[in-house]
Amino acid sequence: MNNFLKKAGRLLLKVIFWFFILSIASVILFRFIPVPFTPLMVIRLWEQAWDSKQDLRCSKGWVAMREISVNMQRAVVASEDQKFFEHFGFDREAIDKAMKYNKKHKGRRVKGASTITQQTAKNVFLWPSRNWFRKGLEVYFTFLIEVFWSKERILHVYLNILETGKGIYGVEAAAQEYFKKPASKLTVKEASMIAACIPNPRRWSPAKPTPYILKRQAWIARQMFQIEWPEGK
């Protein structure tokens, strides 16, 4: 029994050791190279394969930051994380507000407070889930990303891999799908419309905006030029 426990302990230590090595190495690697695919893309393809009503689709396209309109960059920051350039991966004020809201409105849909860095960590390295184990990994990868990546790199990766529709990933693919133009040419109205649908891109679409989405789009468009934006960005 003692030998078994010792072997199990050594095995666990090896697993933990290699997890740290590989996770840090992958974060450093993706600081310099495009992310080829994400766990979410694989999950969505698997879901499509098992759904006879859906065709297999994974439309994505990685583009350089200079090929993404500043309007699009501002739109996602305005809609998803207005303190993106100020915090170190976590917005404590937003977390406190979300906790108070969820405590007051038990039984309703849980309100989140994920930053762009957290969403990037989740999309690139993890899978969709709300359990504490996955959340703990999200905190870990969020910390690593903030340490090894610049804010511009975080935003660049996020814009290229976020889900923007059924089988559509990244703002370049979204721009081509919904507006028949590259992401570099997106106007304020178009960028804010894409951003308005980000919270639930498989339900909402820029092609058929609901009254709620139109209202949200207008709010984002107003916020885009009220948020603080680093000089030269």
Short précis:
By secondary structure, the protein is mainly alpha-helical. It has ten helices and three strands; from the N terminus they run ααβαααααββααα. Helices cover 57% and strands 3% of the residues.
Relative strand content: under 5%
Tell me the name of the CATH homologous superfamily of the largest domain. Biosynthetic peptidoglycan transglycosylase-like
**Annotation field: number of helices:** 10
CATH level 3 topology of the largest domain: Penicillin binding protein transpeptidase fold
* Alpha carbon gap, first and last residue: 61 Å
Describe the 3D structure.
This protein is mostly helical. The chain folds into 2 domains: 1-30; 31-223, Penicillin binding protein transpeptidase fold, CATH 1.10.3810.10. 57% of the residues lie in helices and 3% in strands. The chain contains 10 helices and 3 strands, in the order ααβαααααββααα. It has a 3-stranded mixed beta sheet, with helices on one face. A hairpin with a 2-residue loop joins strand 2 (163-165) and strand 3 (168-169). Helix 1 (2-29) packs across helix 6. The chain starts with a helix and ends in a 10-residue tail after the last helix. The model has no long low-confidence stretch (mean pLDDT 90).
